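anyone seen this seq b4? input:
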Amino acid sequence: MRLDKFLKVSRIIKRRSVAKEIADQGRILVNDLPAKSSTKVKAGDTLTIKFGNKTETVKINQIVETTKKSEAEDMYEIVDETYAEDF
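predicted toks r here
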């Protein structure tokens, strides 16, 4: 599955266009390598996403084409969540 579609379906990022924009800016790493929105992801991959002052690392548990909101959190688990210091 494409990275931008996974982020939307899993509801980590609400809109696919926003996921594409963030990925193409180089703010997402897949297995510690810079990723574009078209990068293919699979179960077991680790994503590191930089949102403003928050950096979130998630591990993909499963890939599902469509999902309900209540089941979306089963697609991944949060490994680490850090916040940058405010200056």
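The helical segments are 3-9, 16-24, 69-72. The chain has one domain: 3-83. kinda curious what u guys think
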